[in-house]
Amino acid sequence: MAEDPETPPDRPDAPPDPLAGLTGVQAEPPERVPIRVRGKATTLSGWRLVLSSDQGGGAIVLAEAGPAEPHYRGDGVLLGWSQERLAKAYAALLPQAADESNDTLQLG
């Protein structure tokens, strides 16, 4: 049986790494892009997250066809990845929100 490339071999109980197989990954913040979808007469909005890695460049496009039906598309080194893996990679590559717990609200 082949090993899952997303699961670290030394920690089988660890959650799978959606970026397994890629090294030196750097992502740009997502940008809003227009998207045309087959079967729809209107242009939809989506988010494009561009990344670079030692293996090459790529992008994940999140098409927002509806609130219950997100669709991911991988380009470049991410071409052929499953919807589940692209969704996990997209979430992992999103910029982290700044920790605002130390900020105090100054009023007046």
Describe this structure in words.
The protein is mainly beta and 108 residues long. The chain has a domain at 26-93. Helices cover 10% and strands 32% of the residues. The protein has 1 helix and 5 strands. Strands 1, 2, 3, 4 and 5 form a 5-stranded antiparallel sheet that branches. Strand 2 (31-36) and strand 3 (43-53) form a beta hairpin. The protein is globular, with a radius of gyration of 17 Å. It starts with 25 loop residues before the first strand and ends in a 15-residue tail after the last helix.
Give the averaged pLDDT, no decimals: 82
* Share of helical residues: 10-25%
Kindly provide the radius of gyration, computed on alpha-carbon positions and rounded to a whole number of angstroms: 17 Å
Number of H/I helices: 1
Number of strands: 5
Global shape: globular
Tell me the distance between the termini.
Answer: 65 Å
- The residue ranges in which pLDDT falls below 50 over 5 or more consecutive positions are none
From the helix content, strand content and strand pairing, which structural class follows? mainly beta
* H-E string: EEEEEH
Q: Main β-sheet: number of strands, strand sense, barrel status?
A: 5 strands, antiparallel
